[in-house]
Design brief:
Blueprint lengths: L11 E7 L2 E8 L13 E8 L1 H22 L7 H7 L11
Antiparallel strand pairs: 1-2, 2-3
Length: about 100
């Protein structure tokens, strides 16, 4: 009998590159963080992959999320502060025609 694959919720992530691959660390913020003592989110899952797989994954996610927005009529909007803090622009998301 095979073991069940664990499932996790994540609201934070970090990534790092090397010449050989990409590492993604997914985490979750504490339920009741203390304002005076910020706690870094604990890693819940670490995923390592080749740079080729990371590139294909990012391309497919972008394509499918754009398709979802177009077919559902739902815009997955982000606050302007998120774009600013990450050095992105909303137009970076759209696929070229």
């Amino acid at each position: 009998m095979s073991e069940a694959v664990p499932e996790f919720f994540s609201d934070t992530f970090e990534f790092s590159f090397s010449p050989y691959g990409l590492t993604l660390a997914f985490g979750a913020r504490p339920l009741r963080p203390l304002a005076e003592q910020p706690i870094a989110p604990a890693d819940r899952a670490i995923v390592r992959m080749s740079l080729e797989q990371a590139k294909i994954l990012s391309m497919l996610l972008r394509k499918e999320l754009n398709r979802y927005e177009a077919t559902s009529g739902i815009d997955i909007s982000l606050p302007p502060d998120v774009y600013r803090e990450l050095g992105l622009r909303p137009n970076d998301w759209r696929l070229p025609d």
